[in-house]
């Protein structure tokens, strides 16, 4: 069932965002979809190869604002507010700073059965670079780490405001927050210069395998659907942003099922997701999955800490939801680390996700035919 995908994943290896390896795998997927008699396109767009350098610019800008508070308090306040705004935009999936680092080329593969889909399946194909921030023994709660980042980013302009109002004696208060942001900079420089690429078995070979199998099962059926394989998700959900921009008028009210990290752990339907801020999945879409009867556990809970391809869609009011598999700590299994291998993917879990989505499709079919 999943063997062809896994064999190709083994042959291609790691697939960094906006790289030749990413395109090689996307090209193979394009041919696989053509073999299912779907109408297929390879859509090109500009994207950064990593989110690291744009984030370092933002963190460095906040640090300089903290250090310059004693000398130029008003400059410190104004620059801190600018960098805080830019940081918020990046974490909210409305990028501004990272646009200037979009010097590479990535692609989406879109397979269509019909011009007016009843639903859309989505999975990103690129894999991440490892980082000690994701060491299995160190990862406890990405959400708490993100909140610490948000607090540190907000604290520096807050201290700068105190400095402008009451004198520079408050300048020392920004030091611990600047120190934490400096730690993030060092960690991410080490990530880019000293850490290997993740094999990308669970993240997101698993989601790709499920989406392709679903496309195979649905290709000869009577229901219209699209399947989208996105690039450059790991560098900032650029594939999802491009897909939304290119097809917005068609997909505005179409349910989009995003499949990510489903190769181990408890299958979970994300009720909320995102970084800063967070976004709720459409209640009607969540409810449609809650009503399904399947012979295995399915959890319904927020997935907070990092974005998925569904996050920018939810941020702009589209009908998207993420199916993911999480461990007891609420994080993906074998994720952004060297243990994210093809061999570690639980194919039984993939079969359960296929079963869940197919069960949902059966319910959705009646609704689509009534609307048509």
Please give a structural write-up.
The protein is 47% helix and 16% strand. It is an alpha/beta fold and 372 residues long. The protein has two domains: 242 residues, Zn peptidases (Aminopeptidase); 106 residues, no CATH class. Strands 1, 2, 3, 4, 5, 6, 7, 8 and 9 form a nine-stranded mixed sheet that branches. Strand 6 and strand 7 form a beta hairpin. Helix 3 runs antiparallel to helix 4, helix 3 packs parallel to helix 5 and helix 5 packs across helix 6.
Decide which structural class fits the backbone: alpha/beta
Number of DSSP-assigned strands: 9
Helix content: 40-55%
Instruction: Name the overall outline.
Output: elongated
Estimate what percentage of residues fall within beta strands.
15-25%
Q: What CATH architecture label of the largest domain applies? A: 3-Layer(aba) Sandwich
The biggest sheet, with number of strands, parallel, antiparallel or mixed sense and barrel status, is:
9 strands, mixed
Q: How are helices and strands ordered from N to C?
A: HHEHHEEHHHEHEEEHEHEH
């Amino acid at each position: 069932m999943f063997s062809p995908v896994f064999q190709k994943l083994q042959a291609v290896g790691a697939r960094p965002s906006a790289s030749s390896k990413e395109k090689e795998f996307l090209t193979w997927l394009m041919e696989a979809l053509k073999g299912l008699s779907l109408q297929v396109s390879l859509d090109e767009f500009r994207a950064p190869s990593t989110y690291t350098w744009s984030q370092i610019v933002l963190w460095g800008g906040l640090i300089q604002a903290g250090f310059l508070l004693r000398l130029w308090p008003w400059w410190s306040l104004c620059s801190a507010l600018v960098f805080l705004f830019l940081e918020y935009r990046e974490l909210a999936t409305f990028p501004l700073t990272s646009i200037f680092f979009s010097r590479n080329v990535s692609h989406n593969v879109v397979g269509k059965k019909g011009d007016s889909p009843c639903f859309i399946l989505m999975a990103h194909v690129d894999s991440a670079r490892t980082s000690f921030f994701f060491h299995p023994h160190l990862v406890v709660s990405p959400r708490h780490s993100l909140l610490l980042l948000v607090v540190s980013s907000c604290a520096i302009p807050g201290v700068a405001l105190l400095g402008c109002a009451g004198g520079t004696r408050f300048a020392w208060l920004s030091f611990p927050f600047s120190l934490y942001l400096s730690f993030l900079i060092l960690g991410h420089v080490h990530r880019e210069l000293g850490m290997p690429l993740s094999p990308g078995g669970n993240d997101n070979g698993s989601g790709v395998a499920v989406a392709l199998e679903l496309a195979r099962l649905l290709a000869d059926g009577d229901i219209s659907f699209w399947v989208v394989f996105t690039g450059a998700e790991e560098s900032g959900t650029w594939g999802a942003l491009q897909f939304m921009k290119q097809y917005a008028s068609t997909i505005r009210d179409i349910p989009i099922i995003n499949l990510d990290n489903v190769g181990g752990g408890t299958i979970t339907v994300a009720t909320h997701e995102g970084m800063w801020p967070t976004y709720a999945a459409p209640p009607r879409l969540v409810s449609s999955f809650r009503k399904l009867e399947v012979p295995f556990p399915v959890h319904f809970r927020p997935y907070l800490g990092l974005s998925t391809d569904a996050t920018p869609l939810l941020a702009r009011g589209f009908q998207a939801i993420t199916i993911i598999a999480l461990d007891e700590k609420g994080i993906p299994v074998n994720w952004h680390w060297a243990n994210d291998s093809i061999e570690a993917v639980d194919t039984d879990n993939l079969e359960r996700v296929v079963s869940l989505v197919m069960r949902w499709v059966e319910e959705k079919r009646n609704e689509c035919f009534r609307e048509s």
